[in-house]
């Protein structure tokens, strides 16, 4: 993307289907074959940029709207870990947590939050697979 003059312009785009049997339920089954596909895309695009945002999906990702007691916005992160333990089906010590405060208010005594959790091992798999294909990753998002 070129963000000069205050607007973004898509300069190139490529989408390639993954070979059958390389992914299952959002988890990587055959990292070597996926890395090869990524490497070929990088080569075919002829881009100087070698960084990408990746999106996780599947059973290793948990997204849920929750309500927490209204607290100072600076304290939400502290409260979030406790709340996450009550809601996510994974060991809290093996996940990365994020959140987004929702802009609407359903109850003046609570804050509505979108809670996002992903298993660290799966995040590492995605990042390492992209790296093996020649792409560095500093942003990991969730895909719907």
Q: Beta-sheet strand percentage?
A: 25-35%
* Structural class by sheet pairing and helices: alpha+beta
Overall radius of gyration:
18 Å
User: Helical stretch count?
Assistant: 3
Tell me the overall shape. globular
Mean pLDDT: 89
Biggest sheet descriptor: 3 strands, antiparallel
Helix content, binned percent: 25-40%
- Order of strands side by side in the largest beta sheet? 4-6-5
- Residue windows where pLDDT falls under 50 for at least 5 positions: none
Number of strands: 7
Secondary-structure element order, N to C? EEHEEHEEHE
Distance between the termini: 23 Å
Write up what this structure looks like:
- This protein is of the alpha+beta class.
- The chain is 28% helix and 30% strand.
- The chain contains three helices and seven strands.
- The protein has a three-stranded antiparallel β-sheet with strand order 4-6-5. It has a two-stranded antiparallel sheet with strand order 1-2. A two-stranded parallel ribbon has the order 3-7.
- Strand 1 (23-24) and strand 2 form a beta hairpin.
- Helix 1 packs across helix 3 (120-132).
- The longest helix has 15 residues, at 31-45.
- The chain is globular and about 55 Å long.
């Amino acid at each position: 993307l070129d963000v000069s003059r205050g607007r973004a312009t898509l300069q190139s785009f490529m989408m390639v289907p993954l070979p059958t049997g390389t992914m299952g339920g959002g988890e990587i089954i055959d990292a070597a074959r996926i890395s090869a596909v990524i490497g070929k895309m990088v080569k075919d695009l002829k881009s100087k940029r070698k960084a990408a945002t990746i999106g996780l999906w599947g059973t290793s990702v948990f997204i849920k709207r929750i309500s927490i007691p209204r607290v100072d916005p600076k304290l939400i992160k502290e409260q979030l870990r406790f709340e996450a333990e009550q809601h996510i089906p994974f060991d809290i010590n093996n996940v990365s947590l994020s959140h987004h405060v929702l802009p609407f208010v359903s109850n003046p005594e609570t804050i509505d939050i979108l809670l996002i959790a992903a298993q660290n091992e799966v995040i590492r798999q995605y990042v390492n697979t992209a790296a093996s294909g020649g792409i560095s990753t500093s942003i990991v998002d969730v895909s719907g």
